[in-house]
Write a structure and sequence with these properties.
It comes from Bimuria novae-zelandiae CBS 107.79. This is Oligoxyloglucan reducing end-specific cellobiohydrolase. Keywords: Hydrolase, Signal. The chain is mainly β. It has one domain: Methylamine Dehydrogenase, Chain H (7 Propeller), CATH 2.130.10. Helices cover about 0% and strands about 40% of the residues. A four-stranded antiparallel sheet has the order 1-30-29-28, with no helix packed on it. A four-stranded antiparallel sheet has the order 2-3-4-5, with no helix packed on it. The protein has a four-stranded antiparallel sheet with strand order 8-9-10-11, with no helix packed on it. The chain is globular. About 50% of the residues are buried.
């Protein structure tokens, strides 16, 4: 599902410091700037290989990579020759890379969500650290890509919106060669009844403990969580988060944006409505204890959250981020508490790794790191 990403210029950068000097209890944000010191991109794509190697992707053809924990960032834009023509002339296509998956310092796959046109929707692959990119997928018909997920470095799935939100199923593409090529997968059970996925953080599809998971929403029906053992045959579970009955199918902002499982039983979803006027709700976060078969809403009320991630090895600890704040759960999603530092409003995506460390990416070039005590 497409929605706009505001970009504000300029934003001051704080001084370069060693990752070991980051604070232990609050986000520390370092906006990425271009050679002229200006912020030119916002980031929804985030891939944390380690606490030293992080890739981000976003608007204006942008991809950046750090190999020293954020002290410096390498500009790795995806240079292309795509154009579009209208009544006033021919113009270059500007891609918005809503998701990225990196496997090391050299190999990465980036996904441009698009706006339903052929040129803007695409997948790109690099094997030399982003110095050169090769397009590995363009749809045959106008469509919108939402997110990537990976079982391993070779096998991954891509979810796309239905061509017709009122009648068609969500679509799945599959790769077995690490993103160099993709093919459509014939699926059952992904009938979304007017719903779409959300390209908000690159996490509306996930793989964990041998299963695939997808979240979708955007219609008056309840937001759904789909699960599958093979990526082909899917089962759906309804949640308590519903859309606006007065909004056209497939275009309501209400829905779950992110799904994460820490094992075969325990799962989290977060979302809501990305409208700035949307109210808080305990339905904006939900948890499962049975592998996604059933979902219970949180006992805490939250504003819209676009990304969620478990902290590996920390039991029920997880972090959720969104354009209005960051929250922490210590009990697997039953309740959430606020992390109330100034920079928490920057983020769209979050990924936590071993060592109780989380990285986040967001608007105005923001990339942040936090250590959860």
């Amino acid at each position: 599902m497409h929605f706009s990403l505001a970009l504000i210029l300029p934003l001051l950068s704080f001084s370069r410091s060693s990752p070991t000097n980051y604070g232990a209890t609050e986000w520390h944000t370092k906006p990425i700037t271009n050679a002229n010191g200006l912020v030119t991109s916002g980031f929804r794509g985030l891939s944390v290989v380690s606490d030293r190697v992080i890739w981000v992707s976003g608007t204006n053809n942008s991809v950046y990579r750090t190999i020293n924990g954020g002290v410096t960032w390498d500009d790795r834009p995806i240079v292309h020759s795509e154009t579009f023509t209208n009544s006033t002339g021919t113009y270059p296509v500007v891609l918005d890379f809503r998701d990225i998956q990196a496997f090391n310092t050299r190999v990465a796959v980036a996904m441009a969500a698009g706006d339903g046109s052929l040129n803007e929707t695409s997948v790109w692959y690099t094997s030399d650290g982003g110095k050169h990119w090769r397009k590995s997928r363009t749809p045959q018909n106008p469509i919108f890509y939402d997110s990537l997920a990976w079982e391993n470095q070779h096998h991954g799935l891509l979810i796309q919106d239905a061509a017709n939100a009122s009648t068609d199923s969500l679509g799945i593409l599959e790769t077995h060669d690490g993103g160099r090529s993709w093919k459509h997968v014939a699926t059952t059970g992904l009938e979304a009844k007017g719903q779409a996925a959300f390209a908000a953080s690159g996490t509306c599809i996930a793989f964990a403990a041998g299963k695939w998971y997808i979240v979708a929403g955007g219609s008056p029906d309840p937001s759904r969580v789909f699960r599958s053992l093979n990526g082909r045959d899917w089962e759906a579970a309804n949640t308590t988060l519903v859309g606006d009955p007065n909004v056209e199918l497939g275009y309501s902002g209400y829905g779950y944006n992110s799904v994460a499982f820490k094992d075969s039983a325990d799962g989290l979803v977060v979302g809501g409505s990305f409208s700035p006027d949307a109210p808080t709700s305990n339905d904006n976060a939900a948890y499962s204890r049975d592998g996604g078969r059933t979902w219970k809403p949180s006992k805490s009320t939250l504003l819209y959250r676009s990304g969620v991630s478990w902290l590996p090895g920390r039991g029920g600890l997880a972090v959720a981020v969104g354009q209005t704040g960051t929250n922490l759960t210590r009990n697997g999603g039953v309740t959430w508490e606020a992390l109330t530092d100034e920079d928490q409003k920057e983020y769209f995506a979050v990924q936590c790794i071993k060592g109780s460390i989380c990285w986040a990416s967001g608007r105005r070039g923001a990339v942040g790191r936090i250590h959860i005590a």
